[in-house]
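User: Modeling request: complex.
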Amino acid sequence: MAKYLLKRVLYMFLTLFIIASLTFFLMKIIPGTPFASANKLGPAQMEIMKAKYGLDQPVPVQYAKYIGNLLQGDLGISFQFNNTPVTDLMFKRLGPSMQLGAQAMLFGTIVGILLGIFAALRQNTWVDYSSTFVAVLGKSIPNFVFAGLLQYFVGVKLGWFPVLFWRGFEYTILPTIALSMLPIAIAARFMRTEMIEVLGSDYITLAKAKGASFFEIAFKHALRNAMIPLVTVLGPLAISLMTGSLVIEKIFAIPGLGEQFVKSITVNDYPVIMGTTVLFAALFVVIILVVDILYGIIDPRIRLSGGKK
Amino acid sequence: MADFETKIPKDRFRPAEIDSAKSEEINKPSLTFWQDAWMRVRKNKGALVSLIVMGIVIIMALVGPLVSGKEFDKQYVPHNNLPPKIQGLENISWLPFDGVKTNKAGKEIDMYEVKKVDEYYWFGTDALGRDLFTRVWKGTQISLYIALLAAVIDMIIGVAYGAISGYYGGRLDNVMQRITEILVGIPTMIVVILMILVLDPGIISITVALTITGWVGMARVVRAQTLKLKEQEFVLASKTLGNSDGKIISKHLLPNLAGVIIINTMFTIPNAVFFEAFLSFIGLGLQEPYASLGTLIDEGFKVLRLHPHEMIIPAIVISVIMITFNMLADGLRDALDPKMRD
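Assistant: Request completed. Predicted assembly structure:
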């Protein structure tokens, strides 16, 4: 276990290093300057600006400096937001993104698990079919389409919830629902399969035979075992929520990381793009590792490293 | 009970002959793997309907821009933001194809009369007066191109990489596995966005980005299956008979992998289609004047409150594409690999 963990963590750092380097060199190839009023600047002024941000030095020097700073947790300073350090910018923006992601994940998995359970308990009835229908829609309809329609029909036409900005809990409801469609779909499908399998097993028959009530069987005996494999999909799901938040934040004008990332791309703000990419990548590999470890803890039958042969 | 005995005379019953030689007889024609799979797909109504709908979408994507009689990039500002109007359907009041728009005060106005337009724009026009019918089907072509591309990349690079890595094993496998491990660690979205930054947004950069990232999942599945298959006797037999490695892979392993390959490809396609639309929506995909469903939704989204048709029509088309691909993928998975059924 310890050896496996060490190997995984080493890989994690290797991956992160490659991503950071890749991002750096790709940023260097990109045409265009990062300075907002570049066309107003003369050649001499350009030189001064470049010197100020260290862009006049040879690329290997810049690279060494970048990696050195990165190891100390310094991601440079943003070109577009009045020289604010990127880490400050990102931390300010992390809050809304995290809240949105966590809410969507929580809401989505709970609704999805319930849908899946009822579909399995009432297999081949209208409950099952409508749950499957919701799952197919949730998986198929792009989240930005869903978000747009939600904003138009529920927000604008019905006027139930505010449609833009991030000023309190009621502002988070529509984006959360829009983002949670995928978790709902995936959790519902997964739960249904697992529950059907578990409900057919011997210990459920035993529970029925000893006279346990319907709800006791469903929630006490079946659910706990059916939940285990769901943990495996939580990792990839969290990643797709991170991707999804890019558009959702754009649509609902939420001051989060994704919205900033999209904006930074359009104005060539290298440090912010690099910082966000590295942060996303770091979150990504950490989540995958945590899920793998969790999986081993929850279900001891599963050996992480393949176990004895 | 007594009735039966009286109604059916005893002499109509005969003892059954038990012939042990005949019990082994196969009395139904044997089916190949593909016939069997097709039978199971046909039984799945969702998959069958999806197949038909997908066929219609493909035909419309190819024929649509030709039959509309309008260019996808021809701007004519006096005709901008017209609602949809279709000959024949315009008089059916509950269909939204009468060219009538409800304004903010709740009053219905015939935009075609106001702007004195004699032509019919079947899906209406956008802010620059371009025909949305043509643009929607042009955009669908892009989505279908991406679908085809993703499938081809998966089938060529992914399968070859996985099969070679799994079949040869040893050090080669080790190196190839390390490469995929790192590639898997990098979020696809980030690779795609970085590629697009370097190569300018457009169809070529999306193609390159998909080529770099799209095949990894397939390679891993194919490798795992190859590892299992190559230990089996028929491979040993083929080797003993002196067949080359290339022949063993292509003639013996690949046909056995076909089911897995198809299932995986079918699940990659909707992801790729979504990715293109997603990138176009955030402005990193296709650029003006070209249209993809993502850019159309993005443009329509900006005027959603005033001209909802400009977003809703492309939104419906992309949703239909995604739903049919997903349903077909589910159906094929159930048909080709009953063990994976959910």
